[in-house]
Write a structure and sequence with these properties.
- By secondary structure, this protein is an alpha+beta fold.
- It has a domain of 356 residues: Beta-lactamase (3-Layer(aba) Sandwich).
- It is built from 18 helices and 23 strands.
- Strands 2, 3, 4, 5, 8, 18 and 19 form a seven-stranded mixed sheet that branches. Strands 10-9-23-22-21 form a five-stranded antiparallel sheet, with helices on both faces. A three-stranded antiparallel sheet has the order 1-6-7.
- Strand 12 and strand 13 form a beta hairpin.
- Helix 2 packs across helix 3.
- The N and C termini lie far apart (118 Å).
- The relative contact order is 0.11.
């Protein structure tokens, strides 16, 4: 008996030695895992602010519900209790909790409201807990949607600046090991294992929310009035290259991006290309003037509206002799074609290159197109008379307004910018991008000044852009009505038109330039750039000048009726 008892005690002692010597570490690890939980501590995603530090995108802290399938003893009962509170199908919750009982973490509901979170907490369910999560908010709704972009379910940037600067905005996740009870409820946090999160940085844009709203409203009304397929507006400071507004219509709400088609979410200002038509005339005329291929006051015979040799006509007009400035004011294709012959293909090609056509502007927005300028070796004799009035090459809206800003900026081509600077998570400036980046000199300051004073002012005062007149300010600009590209054939369409207006003010010291462009307006309502785009540009210019406090340069006599003048000439 004594021997048997001694043998049993010896076996138990041996087992204890084995447990402590051999199995203690795995058992300790298992116990630690059962009573400790790694809790990810998500950082707060950085905000996106407008030029005056008004929030365009920000994050709110919400609660999300997760389950530990290994601790949930009755998935069906838990699913039945949670479903009416979370407004989620009970079968879906059941599947998540029972599919893999060895899993320790499954999402049951994301970013719920405080009342719902309180109701879940009150249930006190074993294996169900709450964790804080950020929810992206866009307090201005649709304002600047195409610039901002949006985030996905995991708060990762998917479009726009949210995508381009995702790493800066997202920050870095922290973590903590939390001691839990049998219900996986937190009891104590191990300070030694705590890794604090690093909140995201904040972007400060050049966009001004007020100007952006004005631009969006103006093109929305224009698109509805002229039944256009889409509309774009870009407002820029010509001296710094700061983009004050970039508007697209149709548009969408970033917080509900999944409810809108992809076409509504496309930032046409940087992705879409089109033949610029007559809006290209100031750039090539400026080039010709700057290299002294022509001069202001020089007369060209415009063939009474039909130039047989070049197979060209001026729609609806029979112009005879026109000066260089009159060619621009009246927007004569034949006159521009004759200026093109003075430059030749090499001169025209160099002019397009000098103004930045055929290459991306480098703006910090995804999906920017380069436009297309055919290699010089492929130009023909026809190119000499077609390129001068905006055919045989394509551009984006942003390229076009950037080139126009160079004329307004004494010939200096400035890189457009959408980002003004970056703040750290505490609001301290760490990146300053406010200084302009000069990309080149497109012409002499004298040539640029003459182009405004002798031609582009006349376009608005007496020519095709009269609907863009702003009481109290001298506005300069150029209209354009281009034939679009047939998406099926890739050739010039005779039914799809693009109406555009480029403008700026005040003429003596330009502080704002704007482009308004309508794609495929209804021909029965109107499609000339001076008719469909100039009035919206006028609205944007007038509101922007007043908002920025730019003093009027001209006396305003009563209620000017200049903006009521209807367009009745071809452009």
């Amino acid at each position: 008996m004594v021997c048997a008892l001694g043998a049993m005690l010896a076996a138990l002692a041996g087992r204890l030695v084995y447990i402590y010597a051999v199995s203690s570490e795995p058992l300790q690890r298992l116990a630690y895992q059962q009573h400790h939980m790694r809790v990810p501590i998500r950082p707060c995603r950085g905000s996106i602010l407008d030029a005056r530090l008004r929030p365009l995108a920000g994050s709110l802290e919400t609660q999300s519900v997760f389950g530990d399938p290994k601790l949930v003893e009755d998935p069906a009962a838990v699913a039945g209790a949670l479903a009416p509170i979370l407004k989620v199908d009970a079968d879906e919750i059941y599947r998540k909790l029972s599919a893999d009982r060895e899993r320790r973490f499954v999402w049951l509901a994301r970013r719920i409201g405080p009342e719902v979170a309180r109701a879940v907490r009150d249930l006190n369910l074993v294996g169900v807990a709450l964790v804080p999560e950020g929810k992206r908010e866009y307090p201005c709704g649709q304002v600047a949607a195409h610039v901002l972009g949006f985030v996905g379910a995991e708060q990762q940037g998917l479009e726009g600046l949210e995508k381009v600067f995702d790493e800066r905005l997202a920050g870095r996740e922290g973590e903590a090991m939390v001691l839990t009870d049998s219900r996986r409820r937190p009891i104590w946090t191990d300070a030694q294992t705590y890794v604090p999160p690093q909140d995201g940085q904040h972007l400060v844009l050049t966009i001004d929310a007020v100007i952006q709203s004005v631009a969006e409203d103006a093109i929305r009304e224009a698109r509805a009035k002229f039944k256009a397929r889409s509309a774009v507006a870009v407002v820029m400071d010509p001296v710094t290259g700061a983009i004050l507004a970039m508007a697209n219509d149709p548009t969408y709400e970033p917080a509900r991006y999944g409810e809108y088609p992809a076409d509504a979410r496309r930032n046409r200002a940087v992705t879409d290309t089109f033949p610029p038509g007559s809006t290209a005339k100031p750039f090539l005329a400026t080039t010709a003037l700057d290299v002294q291929a022509v001069r202001f006051g020089q007369v060209f015979y415009c063939e009474d509206g039909f130039w047989a040799e070049a197979r060209l006509h001026d729609a609806g007009h029979r112009y005879g002799n026109l000066t260089v400035e009159q060619i621009l004011i009246k927007s004569s294709n034949i006159g521009m074609a004759k200026i093109g012959t003075r430059l030749g293909n090499r001169g025209l090609f160099d002019g397009l290159n000098r103004f930045g056509f055929g290459r991306p502007t480098g703006v910090m927005l995804p999906g920017e197109s380069a436009g297309r300028v055919i290699p010089l070796a492929k130009w023909t004799r026809l190119s000499t008379t077609r390129v001068p009035f905006g055919q045989e090459f394509t551009t984006t809206p942003l390229q076009l307004v950037t080139a126009f800003a160079a004329i307004a900026n004494q010939g200096r081509l400035v890189k457009p910018k959408i980002l003004r600077g970056v703040l750290d998570s505490r609001g301290r400036a760490i990146v300053d991008l406010s200084a302009p980046e000069v990309a080149g000199q497109v012409c002499s300051p004298r040539t640029a000044r003459d182009m405004i004073d002798r031609a582009l002012l006349g376009v608005v005062e007496e020519g095709t852009g009269r609907n863009a007149q702003v009481p109290g300010y001298k506005v300069f600009g150029k209209t354009g009505t281009a034939q679009g590209i047939d998406p099926e054939t890739g050739a010039i369409s005779h039914t799809r038109y693009i109406g555009a207006f480029l403008g700026g003010a005040p003429a003596d010291k330009p502080q704002v330039v704007v482009l308004v462009l309508l794609q495929e307006p209804d021909k029965s309502v109107g499609y000339y750039g001076g008719t469909v785009a100039a009035p919206a540009a006028k609205t944007i210019l007038e509101a922007t000048l007043h908002y920025l406090g730019v003093p009027p340069t001209e006396p305003v006599e009563g209620d000017s009726a200049a903006h009521l003048v209807r367009q009745d000439v071809s452009d």
